[in-house]
Amino acid sequence: MKRFMLMVVAAGAAGGGLASLSPEIGRAEVAPASPIFGVRVPDGYRQWELIAPSQSPDEIKGIVGNETALKAYRDSKLPFPDSSILVKLSWKRDLLAGFDGDFVPGRPTMVQVMVKDSKKYPETGGWGFGRFIDGKPADEAQHKSCFACHSRNDQVKQHDFVFTHLAR
């Protein structure tokens, strides 16, 4: 539990480090859109509430959601309603000196965005995807892989193509 809490606190504290990962949003002409889906990094996402942390062998991640997505999580309402937005922030894992096996966020690696719009994205379960590295959208090939990954697992399909569950 101590390591989990340290990761959550450290992820929140490092959120400001992602400023270099995406441009200031709010000026539509500056914010690039993902290929295929046209998804942009949403304005104000750094102030959204944490849904859950996650990790991989070399990264830690924090998944945040807008108010619509959070309400759906809290009410256990699936599928997520249109206008739900989820953002996954990823950082390299840096070992915390002097603490056996604990780690903190290192350099930011990616921002991933899922936007629910069942009319605009019917072929991908109602979700549009964006993957941004250093503030720029990843290439079209990477975006073509998004829904393939989200639709290959039955448990994820049953959770409206979303991997993350609300941490309690």
Descriptive report:
The protein has helices at about 1-15, 65-75, 140-150, 155-160, and strands at about 50-55, 60-65, 85-95, 105-115, 125-135, 135. Strand 3 and strand 4 (about 105-115) form a beta hairpin. It has a single domain (about 1-160), classed as Cytochrome P460 (Chalcone isomerase, 3-Layer(bba) Sandwich), CATH 3.50.70.20. The protein has about 170 residues and is an alpha+beta fold. The longest helix is centred in the first third of the chain and has 13 residues, at about 1-15. Helix content is about 20%, strand content about 30%. The model is unreliable at about 1-30 (pLDDT under 50).
Topology:
Blueprint: H1 2-14, E1 49-55, E2 59-65, H2 67-74, E3 85-95, E4 103-116, E5 127-133, E6 136-137, H3 140-150, H4 154-158
Antiparallel strand pairs: 1-2, 2-3, 3-4, 4-5, 5-6
Describe this structure in a few short sentences:
This protein has 168 residues and is an alpha+beta fold.
Q: Could you please say which CATH topology applies here?
A: Chalcone isomerase
For the biggest sheet, the summary is: 6 strands, antiparallel
Rg over alpha carbons: 16 Å
- Name the overall outline: globular
Number of helices: 4
Order of helices and strands: HEEHEEEEHH
Question: What is the total number of structural domains?
Answer: 1
Strand adjacency order, main sheet: 1-2-3-4-5-6
Question: How much helical structure, as a percent, in the residues?
Answer: 10-25%
CATH architecture: 3-Layer(bba) Sandwich
Percent strand equals 25-35%
Average residue-wise pLDDT:
87
For the record, what is the CATH homologous superfamily label?
Answer: Cytochrome P460
